[in-house]
Design goal:
By secondary structure, the chain is of the alpha/beta class. It folds into 3 domains: 107 residues, Endonuclease, Chain A (3-Layer(aba) Sandwich); 125 residues, no CATH class; 183 residues, no CATH class. The chain is 33% helix and 20% strand. Strands 11, 12, 13, 14, 15, 18 and 19 form a 7-stranded mixed sheet that branches. Strands 1-2-3-4 form a 4-stranded mixed sheet, sandwiched between helices. β18 and β19 form a beta hairpin. α11 packs antiparallel against α12. The relative contact order is 0.08. The N terminus is likely disordered.
Length: 508
Amino acid sequence: MTASFKGLQPASAASALVKRRNRRSDTTHELLLRRELWRMGVRYRKNVESLPGKPDLVFAGACIVVCCDGDFWHGRHWEWRKPKLERGTNASYWSAKIAGNIERDRRNEVLLAEVGWYVINLWGGVLAGGEDEADYRDLIEDFRLAYMDLSGTVQGIPAFEELVSCLRRAIRHTLVTEVNAARGQTPQPDWRQIYSHIVVGGEVLNRGYTLEGLTVTYMPRGPGMNQADTIQQRARWFGYKADYLGYCRVYLSDEMLRAYCGYVDHEGRLREQLREHRATGSSLRDWRRAFFLDPSLRPTRDMVIDLEPVRGCYADSWFEPKAPHDSPEAVRANRELVARFEAIFDDRFRPDDGHPRRTDVQIHSVASGVPLRVAYEELLTRFRVTRLVDSVQFTGLLLQVGRYLEQHPDATCSVYRMSGGATRERTVDADDQIPTLFQGANYDRSTARSTVTYPGDGKIHVPNTLTVQIHTLGVKRGSTTLAENVPAIAVWVPRAMEAGWVSQPQPN
């Protein structure tokens, strides 16, 4: 609700004259700030009428506005000023007037923030005041806290009192530069000619802009377009700082902090993959481009890569192959692999529990308590998946299982030999893919109330435990047999193994 001053009168003609002489712009403290900014090379616009409240100073490139507010008229220290006004002359007028200004200022700040502007409020008393000003003392105290923090990472810095005596000169010899390509060529400061720099910018700082000697980074912005390579480009404070690392500080939002923590983990794992691949002696072209990445991030811009990466995350869901028959050579190799793996646990396979009216195809054998590491190393990582539509998903699956094993080396899994190893026929579609590997549910409808005799292959897994189904298929197109005795692996991943990944297709 907006305050109304209708019916209120100033206390006297003198007070009315004072009010009329009070400037809306070009106040003493505003001129003081503008003069100093101009001397430092900072350019701005004044009192932009298209913005709510017509802010005193506008820095369009950085989306920052500055309001130079008079202490009295804008209600500084209102908690003690208000009772004082209420005890004076024409209390209702002044209380309503100042309260209305405060309300208006807050409303304008909200409107500015909603359209992307960052609002800075500076009190006139602070701008014009000296060492006796409370906010000046607060500022010195802020510097003291920063000094104490710096003392923990830098040895031998001068005493705080010695630095305070130089503070005013240091601020005056600091150059503020706004870098914004929208106004033409991006400026490249001569970093060595000025005591210190403050660089303010938007999109231009996302990529390829070098800041020499950078020590403090404030990053209030979010991840932007959620591109991982942009996040990496922003992180200039990550490297080349060994000589003065103790001076470096980075201030991030919680969202950006999570993104960088995830990105550091991602790069560490990527390097480990590359080291392992180099040890094999294989070409880089043969490397499976698959890695973990925060689910909110995209690897890069679309025009940088010719094949769009596939993103995935298995959580209480199945990997289900579409073309296990794709390569005759791979089929033969997989037959031998499955036979060796099943032989390891042959004495563990037992018929699974189920409805007594199941058919033979719906009765499976299961081996429980199989060490997950053995299943991962002896079966999953060696199983050949050649069709592109399957390989990118299978690579992501291997990433998830491998990561889980790092944290849970003693985990176990269950392995089902579907239909006891008997052949199950599947038909391909026009794309030479098996639309549905899993058999659906069956019902006994001989009674008034039908009963589920088989829940369907998709329900055949152990809760909260990774489950591997080994299928033996006969693959057909219509009445024509395309391949026989084709091993196919389906894997159910519990939510406990959830981890987002990205896999780039690698066509032959």
